[in-house]
From TrEMBL, chain A:
The lineage of its organism: Bacteria, Bacillati, Actinomycetota, Actinomycetes, Micrococcales. Belongs to the PurS family. NCBIfam families: phosphoribosylformylglycinamidine synthase subunit PurS, PRK05974.1. It comes from the Bacteria. Part of the phosphoribosylformylglycinamidine synthase complex involved in the purines biosynthetic pathway. Catalyzes the ATP-dependent conversion of formylglycinamide ribonucleotide (FGAR) and glutamine to yield formylglycinamidine ribonucleotide (FGAM) and glutamate. The FGAM synthase complex is composed of three subunits. PurQ produces an ammonia molecule by converting glutamine to glutamate. PurL transfers the ammonia molecule to FGAR to form FGAM in an ATP-dependent manner. InterPro entries: PurS (IPR003850), PurS-like_sf (IPR036604). This is Phosphoribosylformylglycinamidine synthase subunit PurS. GO terms for biological process: 'de novo' IMP biosynthetic process. The gene is purS.
TrEMBL record, chain B:
Part of the phosphoribosylformylglycinamidine synthase complex involved in the purines biosynthetic pathway. Catalyzes the ATP-dependent conversion of formylglycinamide ribonucleotide (FGAR) and glutamine to yield formylglycinamidine ribonucleotide (FGAM) and glutamate. The FGAM synthase complex is composed of three subunits. PurQ produces an ammonia molecule by converting glutamine to glutamate. PurL transfers the ammonia molecule to FGAR to form FGAM in an ATP-dependent manner. The keyword Protein biosynthesis does not apply. NCBIfam families: FGAM_synth_I, PRK03619.1. It is found in: Cytoplasm. It holds the Pfam family GATase_5. InterPro entries: Class_I_gatase-like (IPR029062), PRibForGlyAmidine_synth_PurQ (IPR010075). This is Phosphoribosylformylglycinamidine synthase subunit PurQ. GO terms for biological process: 'de novo' IMP biosynthetic process. Keywords: ATP-binding, Cytoplasm, Glutamine amidotransferase, Hydrolase, Ligase, Nucleotide-binding, Purine biosynthesis. Pathway: Purine metabolism; IMP biosynthesis via de novo pathway; 5-amino-1-(5-phospho-D-ribosyl)imidazole from N(2)-formyl-N(1)-(5-phospho-D-ribosyl)glycinamide: step 1/2. It comes from Salinibacterium xinjiangense. The active site is at residues 85, 194, 196. Its EC number is 6.3.5.3, 3.5.1.2.
């Protein structure tokens, strides 16, 4: 079954309090070489059949309109795995 | 005067909003997210809650509900639309209002009786206030941090689209202390705090003179009635 992977990240200038909390935890655990952590989302869209250009174009639209809110997030990648 | 309140899966404050509409002197009309029907109402309230569990993003899935097609058309035609908390998030997700919401900067859910300043008393939902008035209504949210890019912030500040600002305490890290905004026309207003919970003495926020006596939220609903009466 092909799966289309969509990755969404908060925009660089948007505060990511969850990432900040993880960065704080790492630092408290002595893992202090990491200056920042940001948390994003990965969506896996499974399809029943081949992935063609038209479907990828549709997924691009879904990603920009629904999966991400482009006021605060960027769609950083769309890839296909088997 | 008939004011519709839309119930989504996960709405919590729809009946409180209906009650507020009644206390303000209008007839509340229960509307359903899955319908394509506004039942001929004169104004619309999108209530608070956690529609669809706030999965994806707060208000995101609800902003694509069937009835939102009619809400967007009505809003663009000038009908008064108020989004409270989760309803504000829906209106931002539907792009009827500028900006977006993220998790509170301190990561905690917060509930407090919140002081606000009324920055624009010339909208469909604030015309019964004086500009600069300070009011207290309850706030309760996890994803209440208002954000927008610099250009949008400049534009809405310049246009008077910042309708409410947090006073004394910024409870969630919202940019420019913004608690509520409107569209350019002023018929669509959204805010994170809950005016419908401050409409009846004995059931409102604590005020300096008496516990639970706050009714500052009532003027939101009488404003809509006044706007519709004038129209």
């Amino acid at each position: 079954m092909p799966t289309i992977l969509v990755e969404v990240m908060p925009k660089a200038e948007i505060l990511d309090p969850q990432g900040k909390a993880v960065a704080g935890a790492l630092s408290r655990l002595g893992k202090d070489r990491y200056t920042a952590v940001r948390i994003g989302k990965r969506f896996e869209l499974t399809v029943d059949g081949p992935v063609d250009d038209a479907m990828l174009a549709e997924v691009r639209g879904i990603a920009e309109d629904i999966l991400a809110n482009t006021v605060i997030e960027d769609v950083v990648s769309i890839t296909v795995t088997e | 005067m008939r004011i519709g309140v839309i119930t989504f899966p996960g709405s919590l404050d729809d009946r409180d909003a209906q009650r507020a509409v009644r206390l303000a002197g209008a007839e509340p009309v229960a509307l359903w997210h899955g319908d394509h029907d506004l039942a001929g109402v004169d104004a619309i309230v999108l209530p608070g809650g956690f529609s669809y569990g706030d999965y994806l993003r707060a208000g995101a899935i609800a902003s694509h509900a069937p009835i939102m097609a009619e809400v967007i058309d009505a809003a663009n035609a000038g009908m008064p639309v108020l989004g409270i908390c989760n309803g504000f998030q829906m209106l931002a997700e539907a792009r009827l209002l500028p900006g977006a919401h993220t998790r509170n900067a301190h990561q905690q859910f917060i509930r407090r009786d919140q002081k606000l300043s009324v920055e624009n008393a010339d909208t469909a939902w604030t015309n019964q206030f004086e500009t600069g008035a300070e009011i207290i209504i309850p706030l309760k949210n996890a994803d209440g941090r208002f954000v927008a890019d610099d250009e949008t912030i400049r534009r809405i500040e310049g246009n008077g689209q910042v309708v409410f600002r947090y006073v004394d305490v910024n409870p969630n890290g919202s940019m420019n202390d913004i608690a509520g905004v409107s569209n350019e026309r002023g018929n669509v207003v959204g805010l994170m705090p809950h005016p419908e919970h401050a409409t009846e003495p004995g059931f409102g926020p604590d005020m300096t003179d008496a516990m639970r006596s706050g009714t500052d939220g009532l003027a939101f609903f009488t404003s809509a009635i006044a706007a519709l009466t004038r129209a």
